[in-house]
Every structure is written in C-alpha cells, then in structure tokens.
Design a protein that fits this description.
nine-stranded mixed beta sheet; about 40% helix; globular; alpha/beta
Length: about 290
C-alpha cells in the first residue's frame, strides 16, 4: 500500500450476491469495508474465508443504501470510495481521485466515469453529467453536477456525514439525488471527472419492473423532501399516467410520505434554480444526476 492509497477507504455494500462479491473483491486494495445487508446466501462466510484482510460488517438486516453510512462512519480516511458488489475502481483511479480531492477543498463528491460491462460502454448517466448545463466552478476539477452514481463516487467523509449520508425514506435506487442537493445547499461542490474511472458489471439478478417502480417512487419522495410543491405535483401526475408501475410507485410513496414530510426542507433558491435547469421538458427523458 502506498501513502496515496491510505487516503481512501473503499466501502462495498452487498446483499445475497455472493458470486458477484467474490468476483469484485479481488479488484479492491485495502482498506476495504464490506457491509452485508442481511445476506442469506453465505456471502459473509465466503468473505471470512477468502478475504479476511477486508473488514466485514454484518448489518443483520437490509438497510438499503443506508448501509453505506455504516462504512463511512467506520472509515478513518479523509475520503471514501463507494462500490457495489458488482463494481470496482480502475487501477490508479483512487490515487488520482484523492489527488483531485486534496487540490479542491470544496469538492465533496467526485463522480467518476463508469464503464459498463466487458465492452466498457460509458454509463448513460455519465454521458449526461459530462454535458451538464450547470456553470463550471473554477475551483472544481470537472463539470458541476447535482447527482452521481454511487457505484462510481468518491466522497469527502466529513461532508458526507454532515449531510447525514443516505436516508431510509428513499432507501435504495436514486438515493444519490437528495444527498447531492443537501451537499450543494451546504456550499459543497460536486463534479464529474472523466479521467477517474470505475467499472460496473451489472448483476444478472435484476427485476426490471421493480426497478421502474422504485425509480418513480423515489423521484417523487425526493421531490417531497426538497423540491417545491409544483414539482411534487408534476411528478405525481406523471406517475399516474405511466400505468401499473407508476400506480404501484405512487402507492409505495404514500406509505413513506409521513417520514418524507417530517424531513421536508426547502432548498436555497440558488440550488433550486440549478436543479430546475436540469429538468427535462420531456418526461420520458432522464436528467443529469
């Protein structure tokens, strides 16, 4: 391990994807903290046998994206790099990322270029971030953004913790946006940097319908948490016109609504204006994350 490596802890969250975890962990250099979200497939036993040099934390239940908060709290390094059980960082990426974080004291999140699959196709979200319409801040190393992909993000530990990390209202899927908005509201910068690279080989264990439901549900809940009521109304109306997935998303959002309302907080006008500039007039098209 080099001195540079010691600046970054890799935090991996997993749940019932032992095969993916077993393939990805050899790509990570210590220090690594793996938080197991209540796996029942022997993932923890495999880790203890094959990767005893990595720290294993067994949450005992599914905490969703909030499990990453455990890893960040346990880390003793100034920066934390997130990875999923089916992703990893390119050689030298974290050293370069840490250098850029050192050089940019206001930078809270460095969003990396994520290459998907064996073909190393750039994730569409990264392509959107590269074209971000937000004014580029002179003290940041790349385009300014108001979102990121968690499996390819390097965060400043103290900024992440001050913003309360990921929350249990959103739970999982699209959990990055609320955190990004709160970091920007606190004056931190978020930047997309193409030269820092992460690899993502998505697990085949996926449920497309479930993902669609969660994307809609969590976009609506994020709006309730931080956006004006007009934005909330538009999001709900859009979901109501997207068929069964949208209807189910609305129903699930309703059960989480009391918690979202209790934590609702308006964004500063400068952040809401910036976020509004990312809203697409086409409801079927995504926006920069």
């Amino acid at each position: 391990m080099t001195v540079d490596d010691a600046r970054v802890t890799v935090v991996v969250v997993t749940r019932d994807r032992r095969a993916e975890l077993e393939r990805s962990l050899p790509h990570h250099d210590p220090p690594v903290i793996v938080v197991d979200n209540g796996s029942t497939d022997g993932s923890a036993a495999m880790m203890r046998a094959r990767f005893p040099h990595h720290r294993l934390v067994e949450a005992g239940e599914n905490l969703g994206a909030g499990a990453r908060n455990i890893g960040v709290r346990l880390a003793t390094t100034p920066y934390v790099a997130f990875a999923d059980d089916d992703s990893w960082w390119a050689p030298g990426a974290l050293t370069r990322g840490a250098d850029l974080m050192d050089a940019s004291p206001r930078l809270a999140v460095l969003a990396a270029r994520v290459l998907v699959g064996a073909g190393e196709v750039v994730d569409p979200v990264c392509a959107e971030m590269a074209r971000s319409p937000l004014p580029r801040a002179p003290d940041l190393p790349g385009p300014s953004v108001l979102g990121f992909l968690a499996c390819g993000a390097l965060v400043r530990r103290n900024a992440f913790l001050a913003a309360d990390g990921f929350d249990d209202v959103i739970f999982f899927m699209g959990e990055e946006e609320r955190l990004a908005l709160d970091l920007a509201a606190a004056g931190w910068g978020l930047s997309y940097v193409e030269e820092v690279v992460a690899h993502h080989h998505p697990s085949p264990v996926r449920d497309p319908l479930r993902r669609q439901i969660l994307v809609g549900r969590n976009a609506l809940l994020t709006a309730v948490l931080r956006r004006p009521w007009a934005v909330v109304a538009r999001a709900a109306l859009t979901m109501a016109h997207t068929g069964p997935a949208g209807w189910r998303g609305l129903g699930e959002a309703a059960t989480r609504l009391p918690r979202a309302l209790a934590r609702r907080r308006a964004l500063p006008s400068r952040v809401e204006t910036a976020r509004r500039s990312l809203d697409s007039p086409d409801p079927h098209k995504g926006h920069d994350r």
